[in-house]
Design brief:
Helix content: 40-55%
Largest sheet: 7 strands, parallel
Bound molecules: nicotinamide-adenine-dinucleotide
Low-confidence stretches: none
Radius of gyration: 18 Å
Structural class: alpha/beta
Number of domains: 1
Distance between the termini: 30 Å
CATH architecture: 3-Layer(aba) Sandwich
CATH class: Alpha Beta
Shape: globular
CATH topology: Rossmann fold
Strand content: 15-25%
Length: about 280
Amino acid sequence: MTALLENQVAIITGAGRGIGAAAAELFARHGAKVVVSDLDAAPSDAMAEHIRAQGGAAISVPGDVTDPAFPDKLMAATIEAYGKLNCLVNNAGYTWDGMVHKMTDKQWQAMLDVHNTAPFRLIRAAAPHMRDASKAEQAEGRTPEPRNIVNVSSTSGLHGNIGQANYATAKMGVVGLTKTIAKEWGPFGVRCNAVAFGFIDTRLTRDKSAGDTIAVNGEEIALGIPGHLKDMATMMIPLTRTGTAEEAAGGILLMASPLASYITGHTLEVTGGAGV
Ligand SMILES: NC(=O)c1ccc[n+]([C@@H]2O[C@H](COP(=O)([O-])OP(=O)(O)OC[C@H]3O[C@@H](n4cnc5c(N)ncnc54)[C@H](O)[C@@H]3O)[C@@H](O)[C@H]2O)c1
């Protein structure tokens, strides 16, 4: 297979596990130097180590994307290690479900923080290395390097989902952010797309009884969905199964790669056909 991201530098947030980890591995196999980042340092470090052990290039920069100081730290580490940035994948996220009449302000705000404010700040922090770098190359009469952003959305955002007023609102916000960046940075050749996943098999969609949690600001938030929902959901998927993290990563790579060089402002649905 041709390497699609040879000599390109990519930051992937939430890359310690699940879809982000699969994307980090896939990007590395396609020649990218990967900046692996996750809230949890151990899986973040392990993924970067795994990529290096396979002969690829990767560093780990763990941290919380909702920390206002983190975007600058992540950009600085990337530039120090690799000198440039070609692709930013805003993938970090989680769910904190509840019916709207019982949802707390904290629950609501947490979803906007991680899925909207964090990608906004990361994109703003990336501006000197993406927007401004491309603009400078254009001013010198050169064709800018390939540069793009992929923001991770969800079918919950596109269609709404019971128990996810907070998450659905935030994930639709991702689409608005994506289209705006596509319009603002398009003249400089920087693309920005979203990938909206349907039912991908990760700890976010596994049976709640598995007991997975995420620790955010000292709070242990339960992850997963009621087990019976998986059977109901797969009945609505034309491909009649859930997707793997690797298949989800394929959608991210597609939008990040030169195969999508004339695609910007788009939301790619990676859903096995659900919702068509
Ligand atoms: N699994 C699905 O079916 C599905 C569907 C639609 C969208 N998504 C989205 O895909 C993305 C990846 O989810 P996943 O299914 O791989 O889940 P996952 O839990 O397996 O992986 C998400 C990773 O993001 C990290 N993370 C969470 N909050 C963070 C923070 N504040 N700072 C830094 N890292 C943080 C977690 O530590 C975790 O390693 C998320 O944005 C999610 O909303 C998933």
